[in-house]
Protein: Pectinesterase
Amino acid sequence: MDQSQETRLENQASRKKTKQFFIIFFIIFFTLIISAIISAFTVLKRHAESRSLSANPMLAVRSACDVTYNYRTCIRSLSSLQNHTHKIHPSDILGLSIRSVFHEFSTISTLPQELASKIDNNNIKPALIDCQNLLIDSLNQLNRSQNVEIIDYDEEMVKDLRNLMAQVKNNTGRCLDGLDGAAAAAVPQQIFTMKKVKMRIQKAEIYVLNSLEILEKRSEIDEMFDPNFRSILGSFMLQTVGVFCLQYLVMVWLFCVLIMRVFLSRTRK
Structure:
């Protein structure tokens, strides 16, 4: 075998080794890159889940109540959700809010009748009876809403519930206006008793207003539970994932440089 043929065979062997090296090199390189991307998105997913209100019932209730008419009353009405150990959803908040309205009206619906039976004043009794009828009508409407299972409430359901709460609010307002008008014909002791009843009804009205706010701001509450992925991605990339990926890529680059140096040192021998 002459010198030129031997040199050609050596060059072919060298090119083959170089080709094999670069194949292995790029396989390792892209494997590390893909691993970095998967790791980054895994961390991002966990970060997004940790920021979700579904995983934090207490924060979820407080955030939802921030958009309502009366924060403290809302917190009381939704307090049972704060002790949940499982994830909660916007439908849980809406459902419990409506049930709390029903509970309030079930406790006050007989108050005007009880007061009318104790007051011997024909100028006041008609207003109390009218108020009683309005509260009973509201209670019946709320009772029908209890049979609706709110899981994934759509626009039609929200519209129906909004109309229901608006009607209940209207009935409550008419009841309170009637009591105000009747107070002009009452004696001081009767006025004091009527004020106590009125305060109970006003409390129930606040529950109604809170539920109305939750219905009106449904989209805002939904966004709290399911924050925009882009906003999470942007903020988290700046805070954590960006640094993590940069460190990972530097490590990959150093690893590749090390392999190249080892390869070059062997080819020179």
Remarks:
- The mean pLDDT is 75.
- Residues 3-51 form the longest helix (49 residues).
